[in-house]
Design brief:
It is built from three helices and six strands. The chain is of the alpha+beta class. It has a single domain, classed as endopeptidase domain like (from Nostoc punctiforme) (endopeptidase fold (from Nostoc punctiforme), Alpha-Beta Complex), CATH 3.90.1720.10. The longest helix has 11 residues.
Length: about 140
């Protein structure tokens, strides 16, 4: 449960409008090895999940693309708190995606705790039909 508690501890972290960048968001990039990132406008959903996993002692992808999580952990059909959910964006074949921590399934939606959801860490519904899969991460 430590992983999801750490993820929830970042709830409400948001981008700062204008030319200032939130150091909390830049921390996600820098602490997973992406020191070159200087601005929060860089897509950061995967950076957030990577940071949470790393500081919680779980395997992490280290990559900034959401689909990199499809290669981590074990495939699970039904998620538990602390698992990750990976979604496609644009099309199922696109490289684009989104990753976060699934909280609940509600009809055609999966409610996800994630970063860069309307420019902040929050819980947002994502269409179940865009789900590429759930992964259960291994403790390291």
């Amino acid at each position: 449960m430590e992983l999801i508690e750490r993820a929830l501890g970042e709830y409400g972290t948001m981008e700062i409008p204008g030319s200032t960048d939130n150091p909390e968001i830049l921390k996600y990039f820098h602490e997973i090895g992406h020191d070159w990132v200087e601005h929060e406008e860089t897509a950061w959903c995967s950076a957030y999940v990577n940071w949470v996993a790393k500081v919680s002692g779980y395997e992490y992808s280290g990559a900034l693309d959401a689909r990199s999580w499809l290669k981590k952990g074990s495939v699970v059909l039904d998620f538990k708190l602390g698992d990750v959910a990976i979604f496609w964006r644009e099309s199922p074949d696109s490289w684009r995606g989104h990753v976060g921590f699934p909280i609940r399934r509600d009809g055609d939606s999966v409610w996800v705790l994630g970063g860069n959801q309307n420019n902040m860490v929050r819980i947002t519904p994502y269409p179940y039909n865009r789900l590429l899969g759930y992964r259960r991460l291994n403790k390291i």
